[in-house]
Amino acid sequence: MQIQMLNQFEHLQLFRDKLFKGQFQELFASSMAQSLKLDQFLLFEIVQDWVQVPSLVLCASTGVFPSEIMIPVNNMLLDDIDESCGAWFIPDLIDPPSKMIDLSRYVSRLGGRSMLVNQVELNGDVRGFLVGYSEELRNFCINDLQFFSLLTFSMNLLVENSQLRMDGCFRESESQSFEMISLALVENKNLDKTLTLIANKTVQLLQAHDVLVLLLEEGGEWFRVQGRIGESVTHLAHRRLTVRNSLNGRVITTGQPLISQDAQIDPRADQKRAIGLNARSVIIAPLLIREQVIGTMAVHYHDDSYFREQDVIALCSFANQASVAIDNSRLLKALLKSQKDIEEKAKTLQRLLKETINIQENERRRIAADIHDGVVSQIIGALYELEAWNQLTPSECINDRLQLLKQLLNQAIENTRTSIYNLWPATLDHMGLLPSLQELFKHQEKLTNLRHRIQVFGEPYRLTSAIQIAVYRIVQETINNVFQHSSADKIDMQICFSERKVSFRVSDDGQGFNVQEILQSRHADNFGLIGMRERAQSIGGDLYIESEPGKGCRITIDIPIADALSEGLPRNDPNTGTDSR
Amino acid sequence: MTPIRVLIVDDQAVVRHGLRSMLAGAADIEIVGEVSNSEETIQLAVDTRPDIVLLDIRMPGMDGLLLLKKLSAELPEIKVIILTNYEEEQFLLEAFREGAYCYLLKNVRRKTLLEAIHATKAGKRMLSQDLVDSILKQYADLSRLHSLDEFCLSDNEVALLKLVAAGSANKEIAQKLFWGETAVKRKLSLIYEKLNVTNRAQAIAVAMRHGLI
To answer: The complex's ipTM?
Structure first.
């Protein structure tokens, strides 16, 4: 008798084991099987994924394989399967009992007329059916039934043996894979290499065609292909795939593994994509880092394949290993980056400190020069005039000399005031920020003809003293920069008090500059800008510089209101920044 | 009698004006020009051939001391009076090294300024009275340092000598300095050796003569 196996069903659990084939053949060639005088024996396996209805799949036949090998069965067959034991005898397939109706019709279509059926069990679970049929109407005797039961019993043993062998192989190869992966993880090789190793082992163990490791991108709309093995997915290197309406997306949402018997017709799947990737049966496991789903790992089969629970468990284990690799690599990257950031920050701070000291020293030098050239010179001048009060030149009278003295002393007083104002604007203490800024702009306009305009939006409220000083100094520095570098004619200031923040914006119509270039250059002037930003950050705010050559410059200071409000004062103090004493 | 020709160099107009006023009544002094920056000074000096330049140290651009150096090198016949607000000795010493004749603080009296101009014309040197004291003190310090160097005495040893000079006995000294009496004796004999003397009285005499105590 010719035994046929269904080759394209290599993935059927029973037929992964090569030994089983030989034993199967031997069994039906035995005299006991022959003595039943049946025309064909058929072996069916029950396949059942977690979602779809159970089917019987023909996995071995002593005759020619039919084109139809899968029989969807109603649940009745399986419902009370446990209660029945022993063989069924269906004398006429034209009139079968209702629970056997699907199977009977199938056998009938193959040309059977009478059949014997028995359940094939594995570890007490019914895993399939053994069918023997005759093309003639037959009346089986009790002996036949007993023989058939014996045959089925042998079949059970074969299946069980086979299962044990396969389980052993699977476990061994699984543990080998995990050992290798663990080693790779410990050695902390680069992420791509580790993922490739994991993917390779997954494909081998699960006998899949392709495997994909997909990472969720920020925003959750896209997957990035992080790892892949298999011919049908090679072209996906560094590609992105949409998350929406895909099986992988579903795994992201549920955080649970998923099986699809045929992704090309599965309504949950992105069917076009499945067709494009030549993927039919797929298993997908989530990649989890600290209970967060960060991506998926999917194995694809190019055919209609069937899985056991342990396949899913194995895939989940591989996915966990991949997650650890990804997590490690991310942590390492973050660690290196934060280390670098800290170093950068420390360097910048050191430079700033140096620059701050320079600025302070320059300021002192400037003030010393101011006093020397201004006040002291005027007083010396006055002293000389006084010293020579009786040395009048012919054209001069004593009144002229006194007038000159008065003028010199007044100038000295005026200069002293300016020096004091430069040291510390008294208006800040007495009047608050807005009047001080107005004063500052007016002062600059008087000195340098730099025209200005100040606009205030929103209902002003009083700011903390630290913020007032910081904003004042930043604006002062900005005005100095504008005057020194921009050749601007006009400078505008907008102050905006809103619910969430207070913003100060200074814009000029000068020549502008390339912001990145200035910030990155090691030139001393850029410390002004960096220092201004640091100062803004020191009061919980931030500073933005917008400029382009030829387009002026705009500097914005944003301070969140939580940091900005002066404590213990009402939000809507009508005397903006005016001392409420 | 030909008047003394004076050129005023100061960047502050009020100061130049004041100097003109001060010198206006002096018949023997002629102001030949005034200039507000170092760069034009040399040329003006060449053109006007002054006897004396009144020069400020603090000037924009090239400072006064550098200008002084240039003037001394290029026009050595011109004598320079430094007129400044800086009383730091380092400026003063540098100014004299570079050939200045007088170093006056700006709050100078008219009388002193005239004296200085005349003294300079006569080739004498002068200092503001305030500066004389500090210079002398510095000289004393210098000579003391020099002696300390010469005798290789440490501060401790000088302190010990002071106590000896004040008439303290070894026992008292030992108590004051928290030393043993033998230590005091040993240290004293070391000091005698350094000063090349043999007893207390000689040691005090040498130390006082050299300004050590």
So the answer is: 0.70
